[in-house]
Amino acid sequence: MASVPSERDRSGTPLAPEADLGQQVGIVTAASAAVADSGKAAHAGLPGVLADVPVAVLVIDREAGSVVYANTAAVHLAGDVGLPVDIDTWGAAAGLTDLAGRPLATSSGPLSTVAQGRPVTGEAVRLAPGTSTEPGRAGAADAGGLGDQLLWVTGFPLSRAGSDQQLSLVVFLHLDPPEQSGDPDAYLQALRERAVIATDITFTITDPRQPDDPLVWVNPSFTRVTGYEADEVIGRNCRFLQGPATAADAVATIRAGLEARETVTTTLLNYRKDGTAFWNQLSVSPVFDGDGDLVSFVGVQTDVTERVRVEREREAAFAAEQAARQEAELARSVAEQAQTDAEHAQAAAERAQGRLALMAEATSTLIATLDMSELLDRLTGLCVPRLADWAYVTVLDEYGEIHDAVARHRHGREADLREFTAQHVMHLPAMSPSRRSISTSQPVLLAEVTPEILEEAVTSPTAREAFHRLGGSSVLTVPMLARRRTLGAIALVRTSADRAFTRDDVEILEDLAGRAALAIDNVRLYQREHAVADTLQRSLLPVLPEVPGIVASAHYVSASSVADVGGDFYDLLHLPDDSVGMVVGDVVGHDVAAAAAMGHLRGLLRACIWDAEDADPGRMLARVDRLVQGLGVASLATMVYARAVRPETAGAPWRLHLASAGHPPALLRSPGGDVRVLEEITGMLVGVDAEAHRSTVVLDVPAGSTLIAYTDGLIERPGEDMDQGIHELRERIAAAPVGAGPRELCDAAVSAALDHRDDVALLAVRFG
To answer: Which residue spans adopt a coiled-coil conformation according to this UniProt entry (predicted)?
Structure first.
């Protein structure tokens, strides 16, 4: 029996022992008057459940005493007897007799008992085909040698007395010849039990007189179908078969039938013990006693999962056929639409590909220059003629005022463009599209430029005349936004009315304007930093002074990629005692911070050299080292300091006093071109040990000699020893022509490829 809705559930024990499955079973069931053309439907579902089961099924109308329904198996028993027919006639046609061979019509047989509304709990009858009143059936039995067989009859009424229909349920058990038994009563009892238990159809009985209408009996087929043993379900309401997908309307139908005490038939989804679902075709019929009191509900269930599946597949196939027919009818229009869609898709793909190509070209083109004028010219070249017939770009300064403008026309028209730019673009009125884009940071699309719109947007008559000569039917402007600032606007103009701008054009131009704005902002940042670097460089790298008796030249290259400054420096001083001070140094680092530290160090060094009471270079560097570490001017630095003392008489040699703080050795070129590496001049770096002692080397050099000091960027190469770099530098200096001046020697020194990962400072001084 299917799930019955209730608020209670209880358990109990089996009311009858289970027996082994018996022989082939036959069941006759009386259930419905609908099959008797009465038009009633109270019991219409039960024959539908049992119509094709492999057992005989009858429906008996007790009031008329006639058989009103016979299923396929029952027709095989009695032949194709026309219904309705009285029960005795049907029994005679089937060849039913009592055990003594007397026709049931002449005795008080079980069919008559059931037809009178009394239950039959089990009675043996004989099926003797040879006695059938159907000549064809009797003759076939004789010819086939069919012997008599036993049937066991069980029946009970399905409806109470006084109802519109008086129906009964009858069950026959078809048995093989009985086994020998010494106890006939025990044998008959076994037949009785097997008649009910050993059916291939699921039977359940509930007791509505107990709370929650529990199950009181199930046959073995119930266990086979549901997986629940009898002792697991006896005493429980069978709602446990319900599950998450059980239809609520099917449950409601069952509830209504039980409450009305009427036979109800429905198909619903139930669940086995292992959780698998099956479709259950269920018929529940009330059973009343002789006094008309409800004593039980009999449930007949059949697993119709396969039938439901087939029906659904048939429905799906029918639906698929209908859909296929509709699709066939629409095939031509669908094909045409598909072709149209393909053409649109191809056009969209081509537009997308063109847009990607444009953006890729824009990125590579705009970032390739750091000159603003060239950048704006490249930008208009990207717009014309690919996006518009002519265009103009307005650029704002940091205060939001118009700073620059550039325009381009596909046919040149430079004179008209200059006039339009001067009269309009450089003086944008409030209602002009470019000014509106700049003010709102939103695109402005004028799909059609009417005379009224033009007069409002271009207030200058001269500019309007230039616009008419240039041509324009549609205008699109977008702002150039970068780093949360508006840098200007791009305006595109098309001259053909059938090529008005669309929303797709807006998206493309917005993408291009964003890239252009970043490029413009980067150029401005570079120019601003370059200006700062240029100013800093002018202050840190001095112009060499004119000093009597010497000729000097210097060279500087920064390793920084963003500013032409670094930590290397040089200096030349005409000291108060008429001697000449020369210094080349290198502060650790290659950026603006290193340049700033170098500026501090250079100023400190100048002060020490200029106002020194002790002019010895070694002691001078020691004093600078103490000041650097005490004041925190720089971290680490190398330098070489030379003090040249003039000869007292003409033609006499100059006297050089030199000291080094971890710096590469200076070079001394003789008047004849020989070059000497001053390797004996060494000392500790500045910033390591404030108490370090640095010795001073004194050299007499003839007039015409040139002293060359440099930083390590001139001699360092990746993967090479520094000594190799010094040797190559010496060779380049020595290869210069005899008589070459300091400028020529500087050029020779830097003629080799430099490693621009380090700064280079170079100072050459020739003594006259």
So the answer is: none
